[in-house]
Amino acid sequence: MKRGLYVYAVLLCIFLLLTSSCIKNKESKTYDEEGLLYYTENGEGYHYYANARSNAVEAWFHGIIPETAVKSEGLRFVDYVMEKTRIVIGRTEPFTKDSLLFSITGYNGNKKPYKTYMPDYPASLSEKRDNTNYPNDPPYLLGDFNDDLIVNLIDFSIFVSHYQSSAGQAGYNVVCDISPAVNAVGGIWSEIIDTPYPDGIVNLMDFSNFVKNYQKTHPGETEQDDTPPIVETPVIALSATTVPESGSGMTVTVDVTAQDAVSNLKDAAITFTWNSVASDSRATGSMTKTVAYSPVKSGTATAAFTVNMLGSDFTLPVGTYSFSVSAVVRDIKPNTAEPKTATAGQNLTVTGGQHTITAQASPAAGGDVRINGGTWGDSKSAAVNAGSQVTLEARAENGWS
What we know:
By secondary structure, the chain is mostly beta strands. The protein has four helices and 23 strands. The chain has helices at about 1-30, 155-160, 205-215, 220-225; strands spanning about 30, 35-40, 45-50, 55-60, 70, 75-80, 85-95, 100-105, 115, 180, 195, 235-240, 245, 250-260, 265-275, 285-290, 300-310, 320-330, 340-350, 355-360, 365-370, 380-385, 390-395. It has a five-stranded antiparallel beta sheet.
């Protein structure tokens, strides 16, 4: 009988301990004001769990929580606004109820978020977006994937859904491929990463650009339409040399350098014109090539192209020509244009084939020779153009006639 009572007492104690533990764990859950997450505390820190289904969360705390104190899987960033801390967490697969969102360790300050956001899952790219010319028609508010004119948590939810995808994969979308990218357009766009050069993968570099634009809004169109770009008159350098009529690599190189004080230079439409200097005007013509500038925010940029005058571009007969170049330089500021034109010129001679002529005094001790008024000597050689006039002279030394 005593033994039965003893076993019963032990079981009762175990039951009470388990019940007490469950009650304690239940009571240790503290929910945020919106009821979207809750947190618990143990010796290692505070742990925050989802109370709703989403793949992104934004939690605000009073005070400054060191970024190093925030631990999580997936993508995260921490920033600070007026002595408040914003923690943003996201991952490709959604968080489900009771999933661990993040932890805060080594911090003894305010642990309860005063504001929390979790977008509906799944969020999707805007159906209004016209990607026909993307990314060739900047500027864009990069990161605004749902076209609501602000980069926010909904866009982050979209981004993490496409994170670590590559071109050709089902999850890849070029709109989320926002790296490399530059802040190319000035004025009201000066603080926004606006011009992308997609590299075919959505990775940490794209995430970095997304964070730079986070909570930024579309600046609108009015000011940008009314403000023309400032492009200074370009400087053109024409490099030309005497070119034989036959052979290979007979080219003229044209460099067009322009200074842009506000926004990014886009391209130069370069026109190359030639006219025969001879009265018969045997060859006259022109050709235009458009050459893109390398992306720069502002400053000096150079566009260059090479003209092949022996077949691939055009062929010139023997003669002397005047060459001139003009360039219209544009920048990428949308809906406006202020083309600037500059010209440069240089004469260039296109010659026929060359021949080597050698003159030899005989006997060598009896006289000297020279070609085309050159120096005298026992033997002389010179390269001359086909069809050109050559003057040969000889003179006897003393004692010879």
